[in-house]
UniProtKB/TrEMBL annotation:
DNA mismatch repair protein S5 domain location: 201-319
Family membership noted in the UniProt record: Belongs to the DNA mismatch repair MutL/HexB family.
Highest taxon above the source species: Bacteria
Residue numbers of the full-length protein present here: 9 to 331 of 718
Species, as recorded: Anaerobium acetethylicum
Gene that produces this protein: mutL
Coiled coil: none
Protein name per UniProt: DNA mismatch repair protein MutL
Function per UniProt: This protein is involved in the repair of mismatches in DNA. It is required for dam-dependent methyl-directed DNA mismatch repair. May act as a 'molecular matchmaker', a protein that promotes the formation of a stable complex between two or more DNA-binding proteins in an ATP-dependent manner without itself being part of a final effector complex.
Length: 323
């Protein structure tokens, strides 16, 4: 069991940023409106994630760390319409297999909070303690028991950079949630949680980009688009500034990128990659999210339709632009 968990963990947890991604997505799924991520040494020695979401019931705490245990899917039919970010029940078991994990959680109904410690997949303790409503995870010494994996990590500065990029994408993906990111005691990002997408773009990318945005707002029936595309002056030579979220999830998709770029090319006469911050809503039936555990790649059940809808939605927005 423990060995299997360690191997399985390799698929989901590659580096500190993967831990942060999984735990923040869990916090979002738990309905949190404020999430704080605090790291030291690039997250290799210390990651603390605090949320004000629903918490975990006492009886569910141990269960949450079992492989394939998820509270988010009740049946196979549910899979097609998954709207929560997580659903495989692999993250907590994977993280606990390769790190020292401390969990403090309290539900609204719980009389006290619970503190649970699990290291390398082995339970250390579980006790009742006072705690505010919500959940805190502390992850210490990632890969402490898998030295080979630990050796493959980059420098703390580089690992912190990955987490910083991730926090920016998460902030852009949920303007309604307040995100705080603290690196070695310094606040690196703080969003208020009731701002507009544009304010977060300003916060993350600065004035230059925020003042050169074209709003996109299109409803194509099964596909809806909302957000911004940068004017040509702030275009890039690569796809690094292409951010888009499908049903709230940050993903990479050749089809989506191509659709945006093609629309941009024909309207802007420009062969560069546009700055993009787009929220795309697609009916669950068009999605196959069950492709890879980290869910960064998405497959569509009808690529052609998705391409056409996004391309014409973006085109429509660009056609109405004022340059
Ligand atoms: P998944 O997200 O795929 O369900 P995880 O291993 O990430 O699987 O989490 C297991 C379960 O633990 C979740 O289904 C959820 O019930 C619970 N859980 C994890 N993190 C939180 C959190 N921050 N707040 C409330 N519940 C949580
Ligand atoms: Mg999860």
């Amino acid at each position: 069991q423990n060995t299997i968990d360690k191997i399985a963990a390799g698929e989901v947890i590659e580096r500190p940023a993967s831990v942060v991604k999984e735990l923040v997505e869990n916090a979002i799924d738990a309905g949190a409106t404020a999430i704080t991520v605090d790291i030291k040494e690039g997250g290799t020695s210390f990651i603390r994630i605090t949320d004000n979401g629903g918490g975990i019931y006492k009886d569910d705490v141990k269960l949450a760390f079992l492989r394939h245990s998820t509270s988010k899917i009740k049946s196979v039919e549910d899979l097609a319409g998954v709207s929560s970010l997580g659903f495989r029940g692999e993250a907590l078991s994977s993280i606990a297999a390769v790190a020292q994990v401390e969990l403090i959680t309290k539900t609204a109904a719980g009389l006290t909070g619970i503190r649970y410690v699990i290291e390398g997949g082995f339970e250390k303790s579980m006790e009742e303690i006072g705690a505010p409503e919500g959940t805190t995870f502390i992850i210490r010494n990632l890969f402490y028991n898998t030295p080979v994996r630990r050796k493959f990590l980059k420098s703390p500065v580089t690992e912190a950079g990955y987490i910083s990029d991730l926090m920016e994408r998460l902030a852009l993906s949920h303007p309604d949630i307040s995100f705080k990111f603290i690196n070695n005691g310094q606040i690196k990002l703080h969003t208020s949680g009731n701002t507009k997408l544009k304010d977060i773009i300003y916060n993350v990318y600065g004035r230059e980009i925020a003042s050169h945005l074209i709003p996109i707002d299109a409803d194509m029936g099964v596909i809806k688009l909302e957000g911004y595309i940068g004017k040509p002056v702030v275009s890039r030579g690569n796809r690094n500034y292409e951010n888009y979220y499908i049903n709230g999830r940050y993903i990479k998709s050749g089809v989506v990128s191509k659709a945006i770029e093609d629309a941009y090319k024909s309207y802007m006469m420009q062969h560069k990659y546009p700055f993009t911050a787009l929220h795309i809503k697609i009916d669950g039936e068009f999605l196959d999210v069950n492709v890879h555990p980290t869910k960064m790649e998405l497959r569509f059940s009808n690529q052609e339709d998705v391409y056409k809808s996004i391309c014409s939605a973006v085109s429509e927005g660009l056609a109405r632009r004022e340059l």
